[in-house]
Amino acid sequence: MGNAIVWLRDDLRLADNPALNAAISHAQATGGRLVILYVLDEVSGGVRPLGGAVKWWLHHSLERLAARIERLDGTFILRRGAAFDELRKLLRETDATGVFWNRRYGGAERDLDAEIKGYASAAGLEAQSFQANLMFEPWTVRTGGGTPYTVFTPFWKSCLNRPEPIRSPLDAPTNLLGLDSSSTPARDALASDDLDAWSLLPTNPDWSLGLSLRWQPGEVAAHEKLEHFIEHRLEGYAAGRDFPADNNTSELSPHLRFGEISPFQIFERIRRVPTSGASDDMLEGIRRFKAEVGWREFSYNLLFHWPDLATNNFDSRFDHFEWSDPNDGRLAAWKQGTTGVPLVDAGMRELWQTGYMHNRVRMVAASFLIKNLLIDWRIGEAWFWDTLVDADPANNAASWQWVAGCGADAAPYFRVFNPMLQAEKFDPEKRYRERYLGNYETDIDYPAPIIDLATSRGEALEAFANVSGRSKQVRPPASLT
DNA sequence: TTTTGAGTTGTTCGA
DNA sequence: GTCGAACAACTCAAA
């Protein structure tokens, strides 16, 4: 009899989950049972602790997943601790002969998986990992010269031009072969943590009301969101995605963060949108939306090949850049949305209240921190990591580096967003700003700008021009496996 | 090896 | 108000 464990991580879904399906097959083939595991690992070295907003999301996502597993007679075990230890313990407790998971792409996460594979192999257990969360495995996307891509457009072109089709998503299983009282071991004999005891939800104060009002975590809600987007927003996406007052984006990012929906599912659904007789806007919307999913693939490609993406300048010429002291109150103003620059403040308040910020505004707020306040991008990245419900190890780091100009596919150094002009262009009716700032133009409590935009722009241009020592150090990719 | 075209998301200035 | 040029020249990727 061969029991099987599926170890869920950033793939909290039942549909299109190859590891889950493989574990079920393993159990079926040997007359065994299935145990579904989630480990909250805040202690393993190198694994970045989750931010506050993401913890809130995780709690609700796990809660909903547990309910669905229960309905399908599955066994869901929650454990907290070092993943390697917890997994070994559960393998022994369940007499499992196989363990299955879907791949992650961060450095520490891959090391952990390798460690577990080594252990399983030595113990004579089957251990298998699967492609589930990226459509294009980073080690398979190479330039003609065999190096990883560092520019998005050729990367994505190369992905889309592949001869082999992107696989269709897998159906959700209809029975999860869980343990029951007649199983060995029985379900009751296995300890599972109480989700509430993990304290993922904020208390003292509970700041999560705004998040609950805006978001519905979970696999079912993710697909509803995709359907709604395709039905109502896709056609206007290319033209409308830059206007933060309107709901023209898919808002799928937090669902993708924990894999409640997979890129394979998104692409399959897009493929079913009729294109014959479709408007040019629809065709352009499809192209742009797919490219946004492509940016996620690209960011993970970068993270895989440069595991220190969140902490080290991709372009090492920036290593000696002199950032200004963040402790003079201006960083606090940025975080609190009290810089006196309305679009920046509206964005930062949207973030604080709802765990989200519109993409266009993210760029403006990030540019303001980096280029007007000259504060190290890593400080901004860390704040977003803690406050965004979609805080993602690859996307967040890659995007901050991109704005800073030290990342892959970097913008020219002279590209400094003017938040007043951006507001005119993309929030002409002030609807977005007023949503988060009220009537800020007549509000005597609304602060004056903490910095002169024109002056600080000039200083940033000067500082960033000095960075360009013209001889970029050659940094070989950290991994060529 | 050399050449060529292109590079998510911008701003300002002056005609 | 609108539009093109300038803002540095560099790096990447493919031919």
UniProtKB/TrEMBL annotation:
Biological process terms from the Gene Ontology for this record are: nucleobase-containing compound metabolic process; response to light stimulus; response to stress
Entry protein name: Unannotated protein
Q: Which residues form the Photolyase/cryptochrome alpha/beta domain?
A: 2-135
Its keywords, alphabetically, are:
Chromophore, FAD, Flavoprotein
Q: Lineage of the native species?
A: unclassified sequences, metagenomes, ecological metagenomes
InterPro entries attached to this UniProt entry: Crypto/Photolyase_FAD-like_sf, Crypto/Photolyase_N_sf, Cryptochr/Photolyase_FAD-bd, Cryptochrome/DNA_photolyase_1, DNA_photolyase_1_CS_C, DNA_photolyase_N, Rossmann-like_a/b/a_fold
Q: Which molecular function GO terms apply here?
A: deoxyribodipyrimidine photo-lyase activity; DNA binding; FAD binding
Could you tell me which Pfam families the record lists for this protein?
Answer: DNA_photolyase, FAD_binding_7
| Required cofactor(s) | FAD
